[in-house]
Please model this.
Amino acid sequence: MSKPHSLPEVRRRGVIGHSVLTSEDEVEFVDGIRISSRSRTWLDMARRLSESELVCMGDELIRLPRPEFEDRAGPFDTLEGLRRLVARHPNLQGVVRARAALERMRVGADSAPESLLRLAMEDAGLPEPQLQVPLREDQTNGPTADLGYRHRRLAIQYDGGHHLLEPQIFSDRRRDRAFEAAGWTVVVFGKKDLADGFGRAIRLIKRAMRTSRLDHPVASGFVNDV
Model:
């Protein structure tokens, strides 16, 4: 339970109280109750969460929604919006961690495991992958890879729990076959890989990077192999 600095903290059994400095745009109303905005909650959690957990939470805030599944047209916030919020509270506990998380947040992660996989890849020295990579750049409604390297034709998928449903399994197979038919290497990971910190995943991705097909423009020297 939070209160402005001008009021005493809540002291009641079962309630943790603290006082805060907030701006009006950091507060929302739900059923007549004043609550912290999603973005301010992210910043407040910086004192408790790890950097990677903050990145996951932040990626969700800046993620572009899918209109066919969600009742909203825009993201909850933007990187610039979160930077302004952090700059407004330079002395807040955890603000250094929040600044570090901002530098690693990216638009395009559809789930926390996807964010954690990306961070694990970066920590392992792999180039930063593209997110939501379409099979064909000119078709936005075709199959996509959660992460990948177009110049290497490497598609990386993280299939969570809902991918175990029969209709989704069929859809995933069709997705992967489409990439493979176009000459891509497809690697798929799941909750077991998440549980071991993506150690096996990193080894498989590095192996795939060594053996995957290099696009002709890159191989010919017309495009840099980033």
Observations:
- The mean pLDDT is 89.
- Residues 62 and 77 are 5 Å apart (CA to CA).
- The longest helix spans residues 166-181.
